[in-house]
Write a structure and sequence with these properties.
Layout (H helix, E strand, L loop, with lengths): L14 H23 L7 H28 L3 H22 L2 H8 L8 H17 L5 H27 L3 E4 L9 H5 L9 E4 L2 H10 L3 H12 L5 H19 L5 H6 L7 H14 L1 H18 L8 H16 L3 H5 L4 H16 L1 E5 L11 E7 L2 E9 L11 E6 L9 E5 L9 H19 L20 H6 L6 H5 L12 H12 L2 H21 L4 H12 L16 H4 L6 H13 L10 H10 L9 H9 L6 H8 L1
Parallel strand pairs: 5-7
Antiparallel strand pairs: 1-2, 3-4, 4-5, 6-7
Helix pairs in contact: 1-2, 1-3, 2-3, 6-10, 12-21, 13-14, 13-21, 14-20, 21-22, 24-27
Bound molecules: zinc ion.
The site of zinc ion (ZN) has 4 residues, from helix 17.
């Protein structure tokens, strides 16, 4: 049977109807399949799981278009309709998770005779039910519901307070020394003769990177760290208590154990062990980095004793400029958007054996979007939408959004890359981001031929999902690969020496950075594990233990650390997946990243498997051994 692509509208005014219909139809299918599961008909285990898969597939169908269009559709009314419809979908999912009759049906399934993937699905479904508390007493369920309602409100309040609390410093214009001319021009003095610099990123990031005035950098950093102080401190304590209650009501030792259960890392204890391990591995190389920065800082101020985060960004930039002579303006000349775009498809096409077939007449939500069908060995495997330039009302970051989740024999995967790159010359950072996000997109598509929607594409453990993307970034740093598409206006490829300098500049400070990351990860873990009474005192203590940068007196890092909401106790995940990315990359021939044999094995054993098995097992199958820390450790200390 030939699978067709999602039939999306060709005219701008048809989108609202399309969304409404897609959501209504698919959510109706979810409800119908749930009713069927509960209708008392005797079914064998496989028939039950197949029906369950219909609920998953239809729910994702309803939600995916909403999640995507809420971020990309040019019409505000369509974006807001997409948000409303996705809330409807969330309700359906919550109801499913708390449906005791449905739980009774699923928990009476006899797994004998099921194959490995089906057994895995059944286990995951029952685990989800358990984690939602469906099997607890009415009293406990009532308490869980109240906790869930209150944590939702706290989460929103906590994030909003950080967003809304824009702080500032006022300085005399001479203290803008070091900043680019356009920044200075955009920050004229007020009638009182003072310039206002706010904690918003477009103000804050250039200021902390380029301002030579250390006292002014420090003042602005303190303001930034104190956004939402003191209000968020009490909110955070309450959130930590509620999460702990939720976890213990469900029978876990604490929140980190509850949260880690679904992840590669497995337990809360393992998080603590991992943080200590990285901290140890980054100790000597991190101190080496710190010494370089401190030495350079003492050229400006011989009395300086310790560096804080008010200095580190500034001196890292100084060192990149002075010691590695990487001029961003020079680098940009080689990264014309259209050549990079073509290069990305060429590189990933060659290594993964993919043919990208342009579909110029495909319908899209905006004229900027280009569409390709993805073929492997001549067989259609899915469709990708590349939506790569900024426009009003569009998502401001870079991410991959599922449009359709692939299910074998039912529907082909479709996904969209949503980024904000310039149309002309790109920064090299943008090129790295493009490769990274494209890593998620190929994972979604190549992993999209699964029996169960639950395991399709990037539906793997959350602390593994970044690894394929982090690994694909390596191709954007390789001289040979870059020279295949990074050419200047005269067609001259980027010089080998320049790429080497770019790499050296990028590598500098990585261990120092790792230590700061472990400080953040320790706050995320220990706050949830220990729920300390004095959060600021604990931050100070953890910073002295894990970070090589010094604590700033009078600052309250935790109140504006927004990831405590979204990541909870799992801020370690970025570094965890980087360990695995470095290990997987060690299987490739660094001197020939075009070589397809290893890449094909990786494609088939890791990407194409989606979430069919534990990520640790997929990686071991690819590497021929369990994953290890060695490649990461060697990289960190090199
Ligand atoms: Zn990513």
């Amino acid at each position: 049977m030939t699978l067709t692509n999602l039939d999306i509208p060709r005219t701008p005014d048809a989108w609202a109807d399309f969304l409404q219909q897609r959501s209504d139809t698919e959510l109706a299918r979810v409800r119908a399949a749930i009713d069927e599961l509960k209708d008392g008909t005797p079914r064998d285990a496989q028939a039950v799981l197949d029906l369950w898969n219909v609920t998953d597939t239809a729910w994702l169908n309803a939600q995916s278009v909403c999640w995507t269009l809420a971020e990309v559709h040019p019409d505000e009314a369509v974006r807001s309709l997409a948000e409303t419809l996705s809330q409807e979908g969330t309700k359906v999912s919550t109801e499913r998770g708390l449906d005791r009759d449905l739980f009774a049906v699923m928990s009476s399934v006899d797994p004998a005779g099921l194959d490995a993937v089906s057994t895995r699905l059944l286990e995951r479904v029952l685990r989800d039910f358990r984690r939602s508390g469906v099997d607890r007493s009415d009293e406990v369920r009532e308490r869980l519901r109240a906790i869930s309602e209150r944590t939702t409100v706290i989460s929103q309040d906590f994030s909003r307070a950080i967003r809304d609390d824009v702080r500032s410093i006022k300085i005399t214009p001479d203290r803008l020394a070091g900043l680019p001319e356009d920044y200075i021009a955009e920050h004229p003095a007020d009638p009182d003769g003072l310039v206002t610099i706010t904690t918003d990123y477009p103000d804050y990031i250039p200021f902390s990177t380029y301002a030579t005035d250390a006292a002014a950098r420090l003042a602005l950093t303190v303001e930034s760290l104190n956004r939402a102080w003191p209000g968020n401190d009490a909110l955070l304590s309450e959130l930590l208590d509620l999460r702990h209650q939720q976890a213990t009501l469900l029978g876990y030792g604490g929140w980190p154990d509850f949260d880690a259960e679904e992840k590669m890392i497995g337990t809360g204890d393992a998080i603590a062990t991992f943080i200590d391990r990285i901290t140890e591995a980054a100790d000597a190389p991190g101190r080496r980095d710190l010494d370089v920065l401190l030495k350079r800082a003492r050229v400006d101020d011989p009395t300086i004793e310790r560096l804080t985060r008010a200095d580190s960004t500034f001196y890292c930039e100084v060192v990149a400029r002075e010691d590695y002579a990487v001029d961003a303006q020079e680098v940009r000349r080689y990264f014309d958007f259209s050549k990079v775009h073509a290069g990305l498809l060429e590189v990933t096409g060659r290594i993964f054996g993919i043919d990208y077939v342009a579909v110029p007449d495909a319908a899209t939500w905006h004229a900027d979007v280009t569409v390709f069908d993805v073929l492997v060995d001549g067989e259609p495997r899915g469709r990708i939408f590349l939506d790569l330039h900024p426009r009003e009302g569009k998502y401001k970051h870079a991410a991959q959004f599922d449009v359709v989740t692939g299910v074998e024999g039912v529907q082909l995967p479709e996904g969209s890359l949503v980024c904000n790159f310039p149309r002309g010359l790109m920064e090299h950072d943008d090129v790295v981001t493009l490769f990274h996000e494209f890593g998620h997109l190929v994972h979604h598509v190549l992993g999209g031929r699964q029996r169960y929607a639950r395991f399709s594409g990037v539906a793997t453990e959350w602390d593994f999902v970044e690894a394929p993307s982090q690994m694909l970034e390596e191709w954007a740093w390789d001289t040979d690969v870059l020279q295949s598409f990074a050419t200047d206006a005269d067609g001259e490829p980027i010089p080998t020496r320049l790429v080497e300098s770019m790499r050296e500049a990028e590598e500098f400070g990585k261990a120092l950075f790792a230590r700061t990351q472990m400080f953040y990860a320790s706050v995320s873990y220990h706050f949830h594990q220990d729920r300390p009474a004095d959060l600021t005192a604990t931050v100070r203590e953890l910073q002295s233990r894990y970070d090589l940068l010094a604590h700033i007196d009078g600052s309250h890092f935790q109140v504006a650390f927004g990831h405590l909401d979204g990541y909870s106790s799992a801020y370690y995940t970025y570094m965890w997946s980087l360990v695995i990315a470095k290990d997987m990359f060690s299987a490739f021939d660094r001197d020939n990243l075009w070589e397809p044999t290893v890449a094909h094995r990786y494609r088939d054993k890791v990407l194409a498997q989606g979430g069919n098995a534990d990520a640790a097992d997929l990686v071991a199958d690819f590497l021929g051994r369990p994953y290890s820390f060695d490649a990461f450790g060697a990289w960190l200390s090199s």
